[in-house]
Structures are given as structure tokens and as C-alpha cells.
Write a structure and sequence with these properties.
By secondary structure, the chain is of the alpha+beta class. 71% of the residues lie in helices and 12% in strands.
Amino acid sequence: MLLRTLFASLLASSAMAVAVTTPAYADKSDRAREAIAAAEAKIHTAESLGASTEAPAQTAEARAALAMARENLAAGHKSTSIATAIRAQALADATIGELQRSKDEALASASVAAREDVAAAQDQAASAQQQAADANARAAVAQQSAATSAADAAAARNAAAVAAAQTPQVETTVTTQQPASRSTRTVTRRTTTTTRPAVPPSSVTTTTKVSPQPY
């Protein structure tokens, strides 16, 4: 909307400037009034773009030139009025150009800043995704380790159960010695004497099988 207004004002001002310079037969009073009108339109355009705050000195100078052109026309100095009005137009054009350049630079800076913000946000998102992937990988490793530990524990329990079911027997041999009988015994019958040899001590071997109880 602002650009359309600017272009419309510039076109109107240019048309007025052409009207001032092209017709050779036009009266100088009319040409002065047309130049003053064109200068006023351009100054109004500059002010609508913010010239009063962005370029107050140039705006004030253009306004002063416009006022001088009107004074010259009122005093009958038509040629001076035309020249002063044209100067007011030039000041207004310069102000408009400066304002437009500043606005373009501001838009370019804002665009660059926006792109940098987007790039920073994308970098942060990529970093967050990488951290999430690393966390998922660590969780997967931990789960795998837990599953391996659980499998090892189950295998140990199964081995213990199998060992308990087999219940191996332990054979123990115990040897017990019995005391020997008296070494000599003499029996007298009539006239015959019999001597029996001493009996060595006997030993008894006992084998015991013990089955350990499962725990």
C-alpha cells in the first residue's frame, strides 16, 4: 500500500515536472504553479515515508524551498519561483531515495537475521536429535546387557538344578580292628597237652555310600 502510494505520488510529480518543462508556449505563472504543486506532492510523499523523523533536516529544507517558491511566484518572480520549486523537488527526491535505501537495508538485515535464526534453530534441532539417538543407543546397550545377565543367571540356575537332580554318591571305606584273643591256651586231658597258636587280631572293612542332600 505504501509503495503504491509512493509510485502514484512520483508519477504525479513526474507528470507535473514534464508539464513544466515540455510545453514551450505555457505561461511562466502556470509553469511555476505546476512546479510548486509537484514539489509539494514529493514532499508529502517523503513525509509519508517518515522523512519528518528519519531526515528532518532535509525535509525542513525542502519545505523552506517550497515556501520560497510560493513567495517568488506571489512577488512576480516567476523564473525564480520555478527554479526554487524545482530545487524543493530535488530535495524531496533525495530524501525519498535515502529513506527507501534505509528501508531496503533494514529489510535485508531482517532477512539475514531471520535466516540465521532459522539456521540456529535447525542446528539445535539436529543436536537434540543426535542426543536422542545417542540416548536410545545407550538404552539399547543397557537392555542387551540386562538380557545377557538374565540369560546367564537362568543358565546357572538350570545347571544347579541338573546337578542337584543327579545327586552323586560318595563312597567311604571304614576299617575296624577287633582285639586279638589270648595268645596261648593250654588244655590238659589225661596225658596229652595241646598248645593252640595265638590268633591275630581281625579287621572288619565297612563301605558306606552317602548321597549329599541338594541345597
